[in-house]
Amino acid sequence: MLKINQRFLLRHFLRHAHNKVRVRFAPSPTGHLHLGGLRTALYNFLYARHLGGKFLLRIEDTDQTRLVPGASERLVEDLRWAGIEIDEGPGFEGEVGPYVQSHRREIYSKAIGELLQNGRAYRCFCTERRLDLLRKEALRTRQVPRYDNKCRHLTATETEALLAKGTPHCIRFKLTDHEEPLEDLIYGSVHHNVSDTEGDPVVMKSDQFPTYHFANVVDDHLMGITHVLRGVEWQISTTKHLLLYKAFGWQPPKFGHLPLLVNADGTKLSKRQGDIGIQHFRQRGYFPLALINYVVSAGGGFEHRTNAKQQLLSMQELGEQFQIERVNSHPSRLNPELLDDLNRLEIGKRLSGKESRGELVKQVQDLVKEAYPKHSNLDLAEDHILDVLNWSSQRLTLLQDLTSSNN
Ligand code: GLU
After folding, report:
1. 132 C-alpha vs ligand 1 centroid, how far in Å?
2. What pairing do the DSSP bridges indicate for beta strands 202-204 and 227-231?
3. Structure confidence at residue 376 (pLDDT)
4. Which one of 137, 160, 355, 357 is most buried, counting C-beta atoms within 10 A?
5. Is residue 248 in contact with ligand 1, taking CB distance under 6 Å?
6. Which family does the entry's similarity section mention (predicted)?
7. How far is the CA of 191 from the centre of ligand 1 (A)?
């Protein structure tokens, strides 16, 4: 755990020595990496690469009820497969770790202490039952459910008495009706006054774990994050985060929200459709670069290319050409046909490189052996496989098509 003076030095160091872009991908380990998550990670990575900055991975696991064992490891593996390199993160230790939020609880407790002390946060003893009644009453009167800030008004003596009795409580942040300006790197000026629609938000739950909002702000600050690029679904929370930065007297990072990723017909991509997981694309045999080019084709970030179909950029080229101001602010439509085209291109590209050609042949050999485990007289000679590949490469979307029965 970092001591305060160490942290001061570190901050000093980050400000002066780095003075460079530091971005992060901050998933919650609640499931598999899917296209939306990959897109967020990718844009952060490309932004860092474009500006010679650092890309951090932070695991946001403060909601202990939603954890999925092994999810973090699988996530790192999927990022690695996609070609996204982590500069700092769990297992890639940097100087501002730990990079897993459940290992940073002491840091959050200290930060909460600061807010309690300067009167920007308070203890709330309201029971679940009371909160539930508030919710029901709001629904009955057709209002948006929100906490009524009751415990804000407890006196110090009342709070002491409740604490002395060991009454369970959480900690809430005092919202003000001041609206911090948000100049979104992708959406431009965004206006939202949190206190118009929400009661004071919980920052520390009764289980002593911080909420997402609180831990996210504290970590982005302590980790020296300069730019936060995340899904647009978080944009509404950003105005709340800005109030937290202000309460601490911290300079907030710059924010850019990435538009929704949607199906070709404009409908919402849903995990329930089962086919947006990166594992799914991997298992079907798509190559990482095809998937990466597919994802950016929907979100923008590059000079408009009329012949996008024909182009497959390497990760390095993508990094060089990426421009945050070119990311779309309208929903990003995915076109699955383009993914197939891109994979075909990638097969062609691999066939033309000496080393990659050898790997391709090996992959086909493995696929054939797997598909026909009982056949001992298969012709798996390199020349033969290359003939087949050269002959079929124009039409071959996936190597798996060579062995699948519906071909
Ligand atoms: N843990 C949040 C998520 O699951 C991170 C959001 C953010 O990037 O701030 O997406």
Report:
1. 27
2. unpaired
3. 76
4. 357
5. no
6. Belongs to the class-I aminoacyl-tRNA synthetase family.
7. 21
How long, in residues, is the chain?
A: 407
Nearest atom (ligand 1) to Cα of 220: 9
Say yes or no: CB of residue 253 within 6 Å of ligand 1. Answer: no
Q: Is 63 in the pocket of ligand 1 (CB under 6 A)?
A: no
Active site residue 271: yes
Residues with Cβ within 8 Å of residue 407, at least 6 apart in sequence: 401
47-61 residue pLDDT tens: 999 999 999 999 999
E strands in 156-290: 170-173, 182-184, 188-190, 202-204, 227-231, 254-258, 261-262
pLDDT tens digits for range 347-392: 999 999 989 999 999 999 999 998 888 887 778 889 999 999 988 8
In CATH, which of 2.30.130.10, 1.25.40.10, 1.10.1160.10, 3.60.15.10 is domain 274-403?
Answer: 1.10.1160.10
* Residue 60 beta carbon below 6 angstroms from any ligand 1 atom: yes
